[in-house]
Amino acid sequence: MPASTTTPSRRGEPSRLQRAVFQPIGDAGRAALVERRIAEAITGGVLAPGTKLPAESELAKLFGVAPVTAREALQSLRERHLVVTRRGRNGGSFVVETADAAEFALRALRDMSRVALRDLAAHYLAVTGACVGLAAQRADPSEVLRIRSRLDRYTGNDPLTWRRLADDAHLEISALSQSARLTREQMRLQAEFSPFLALVDASEADRDRSRSQLLAVLDAVSAADSATATRQVRESIADAMDRLIDRQAELARS
């Protein structure tokens, strides 16, 4: 289906990053880990303002933790003013309407050191580069065409729609690598790095630039050209880093 040119519906099908939020966290999972994963999804814009979270019992089941652990995590999120709980027939726990992913990202960028920012980008490059390199070797061109067709049909000028479309495309490419480990790591990193990518895609011209870079990666993957696909990823991330560093300098001056 063609990508929507409006803000993604809160009641629509969850994006791949949204589904990744509620994956089991294993034996190490405690309230703090549940809280952190949901908080990162909110501050990263994966869970939009007004999004209704699963009920406590469902959260516990999804994360693989005890119900009391899910309850403690929600209480901490309420204390941080990231979640509000309403009673009644249409009640539940919701992301607060004042949650602003762009503001969270600007704050994180301002407070992050240049070394930490470059380290995050290096990790993202290592995983994304490995994914596209393997995808170029293993993917069927028809699978790549389906991803590209959605990007080709995108004609909107909505930053949230573009970010979701781009994130989904990256995750679909990683799935084409046929590596479960790399795909899981790509999902985690995409959620962490996506808010910063949204900052450098603030204008329509910036989004067109990022779209062209992503299409070039897909073309290389479709052509089974692993070297070119990896190089395209490296260049696009380097370009994003340059723009992020410029933005960070602007924040420092202000």
Detail the topology: elements first, then pairings.
Layout: H1 16-21, H2 31-43, H3 56-63, H4 67-79, E1 83-86, E2 92-95, H5 101-111, H6 114-138, H7 141-153, H8 159-176, H9 180-200, H10 204-222, H11 226-253
Antiparallel strand pairs: 1-2
Helix pairs in contact: 2-4, 3-4, 5-9, 6-8, 6-9, 6-10, 6-11, 7-8, 7-10, 8-9, 8-10, 9-11, 10-11
Counting DSSP E segments of at least 2 residues, the number of strands comes to 2
The poorly predicted ranges are 1-9
Q: How is the largest sheet built, in terms of strand order?
A: 1-2
Q: Beta-strand percentage?
A: under 5%
First CA to last CA: what distance?
43 Å
* Structural shape: globular
Overall structural class, as computed from helix and strand content, comes to mainly alpha
Helix content: 55-70%
Instruction: Please tally the helical runs, counting DSSP H or I stretches of 4 or more residues.
Output: 11
What is the overall pLDDT average? 89
Largest sheet: 2 strands, antiparallel
Cα gyration radius (Å) = 19 Å
Q: Would you write up a description of this structure?
A:
There is one protein chain. The chain has helices at residues 16-21, 31-43, 56-63, 67-79, 101-111, 114-138, 141-153, 159-176, 180-200, 204-222, 226-253, and strands at 83-86, 92-95. It is globular. Helix content is 69%, strand content 3%. The chain has a two-stranded antiparallel ribbon. It is mainly alpha-helical and 254 residues long. Strand 1 and strand 2 (92-95) form a beta hairpin. It has eleven helices and two strands; from the N terminus they run H-H-H-H-E-E-H-H-H-H-H-H-H.
